[in-house]
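Hi R.,

As promised on Friday, here is the backbone we talked about, encoded as structure tokens. Could you run it through your design pipeline when you get a chance and send me back a sequence?
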């Protein structure tokens, strides 16, 4: 088996196969924007055929807003099920059923003359994406060697932004964003799922899942040998045995117990705030409304500037991949937040003075590109995989569910509220995000630990030794004491 510095062909195949789900999630975030006018025309034609009258503008706006927002609602709901679904054997394979059904409904919506099919398809693909946002970082984190966990964890975000970029390119009028081909543009989302189904049988299960959850030591050893390329996996197995010993003490943790038990409050607060720092940074305002922002900045070809922002998005995720194990998670997150805050202020100034200084259109474009670049250095990739690092095996699925739910909820809120905020505040809207970024920077600086190069158990043990952020009481010595003798998993 080919192996270089702990990277084996099996590990590469397994990570690649897993992040195909992330790519599909990104594709569906970006694919809906380009063909908006064409799909709205199709909705109008469907309404006309049913009611012999053109659709009212308010009804059309409602249908389109629902088509966009229902994706986040699906993700929001399914993300809370990650803790349950993660214990299913081959959960990511089963999840592809949602992708195939959602993709088929969207791809056939025009043929079926049904905007209901489009909306239901968007909901199902959102539900698929919500599970992906929890399952993929969890699986990649569990199969990765400790010294590569950060770099490989970044690949979830890299695949996601590549998916957005692919959707932006395919959505051009000259490619699939035409009145005839837009159903193919939406239905193409099933392609990564098909490839994933072909490749998954060649990928091993997570050794942590096999040993700690399923209690199958021999299969866990076999999985470790395939992933590491080493015949002697005793050191990794010893680490998992210690983690299992602690898990036997702490039991399986539900979402309710996660909130109730003081010993989990500090890592849970950190996990939630990091997710908020990603979604409330203003990045989705850029993604959802980049074309209109570039238009207001005076650019003649805003769609290509949007694609340029997508390319920068992907390029700087690669930069983060190489830096995360050298600079550390905390440092990159701080740099990203500080850079975004500066770019938000510059962007505001450029948009305010645009009418008086035409050259400010270029300054605003540079500020947007810088905003996206700094996002992918830290706040983009790090919150996803650091949640898996902050918790041991017992509470990890519940923590991923809570963090994912917070992420998708904020995604939905920003998607629905930003346009109203922009109408009310004008070019000053990004000062709101600058203030939020400052708050997240201060929280990260004072409260977030560095997890680079530490095992899951070492990180969990550090929280057991450290006073909580929310109280300074004497903590129970073990999670078992905290949950109490009568709690059920």
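Update: got your reply. Pasting your designed sequence below so it's all in one thread:
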């Amino acid at each position: 088996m080919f192996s270089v510095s702990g990277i084996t062909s099996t590990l590469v195949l397994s990570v690649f196969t897993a992040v195909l789900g992330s790519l599909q999630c990104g594709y569906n975030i970006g694919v809906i924007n380009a063909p908006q006018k064409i799909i709205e025309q199709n909705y109008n034609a469907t309404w006309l055929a049913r009611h012999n009258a053109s659709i009212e503008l308010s009804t059309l706006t409602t249908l389109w807003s629902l088509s966009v927002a229902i994706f986040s609602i699906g993700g929001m709901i399914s993300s809370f099920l990650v803790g349950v679904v993660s214990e299913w054997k081959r959960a990511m394979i089963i999840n592809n059923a949602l992708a195939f059904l959602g993709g088929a409904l969207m791809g056939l919506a025009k043929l079926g003359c049904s905007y209901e099919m489009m909306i239901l398809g968007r909901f199902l693909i959102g539900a698929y994406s919500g599970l992906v946002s929890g399952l993929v970082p969890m699986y990649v984190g569990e199969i990765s060697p400790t010294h590569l966990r950060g770099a490989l964890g970044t690949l979830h975000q890299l695949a996601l932004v590549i998916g957005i970029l692919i959707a932006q390119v395919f959505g051009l009028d000259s490619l699939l964003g035409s009145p005839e081909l837009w159903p193919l543009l939406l239905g193409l989302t099933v392609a990564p799922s098909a490839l994933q189904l072909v490749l998954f049988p060649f990928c091993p299960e997570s050794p942590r899942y096999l040993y700690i959850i399923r209690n199958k030591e021999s299969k866990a050893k076999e999985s470790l040998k395939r992933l590491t390329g080493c015949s002697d996996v005793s050191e990794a197995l010893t680490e998992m045995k210690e983690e299992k010993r602690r898990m036997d003490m702490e039991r399986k943790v539900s979402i309710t117990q996660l909130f109730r038990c003081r010993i989990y409050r500090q890592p849970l607060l950190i996990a939630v705030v990091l997710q908020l720092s990603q979604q409330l940074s203003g990045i989705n305002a850029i993604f959802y409304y980049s074309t209109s922002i570039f238009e207001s900045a005076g650019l003649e070809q805003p769609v290509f500037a949007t694609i340029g922002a997508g390319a920068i998005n992907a390029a700087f995720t690669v930069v983060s991949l190489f830096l995360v194990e050298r600079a550390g998670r905390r440092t990159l997150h701080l740099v990203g937040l500080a850079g975004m805050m500066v770019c938000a202020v510059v962007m505001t100034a450029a948009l305010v003075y645009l009418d008086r200084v035409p050259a400010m259109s270029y300054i605003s474009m540079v500020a947007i590109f810088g905003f996206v670049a700094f996002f992918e250095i830290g706040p983009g990739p790090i919150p996803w995989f650091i949640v898996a690092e902050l918790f041991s095996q017992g509470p990890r699925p519940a923590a991923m569910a809570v963090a994912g739910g917070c992420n998708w909820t904020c995604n939905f809120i920003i998607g629905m509220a930003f346009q109203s905020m922009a109408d009310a505040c004008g070019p000053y809207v990004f000062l709101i995000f600058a203030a939020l970024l400052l708050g997240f920077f201060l929280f990260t600086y004072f409260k977030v630990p560095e997890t680079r190069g530490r095992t899951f158990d070492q990180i969990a043990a550090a929280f057991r030794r450290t006073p909580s952020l929310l109280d300074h009481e004497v903590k129970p010595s073990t999670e078992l004491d905290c949950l109490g003798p009568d709690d059920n998993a």
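One thing I noticed while checking it: The chain is about 75% helix and 0% strand.

Thanks again,
M.
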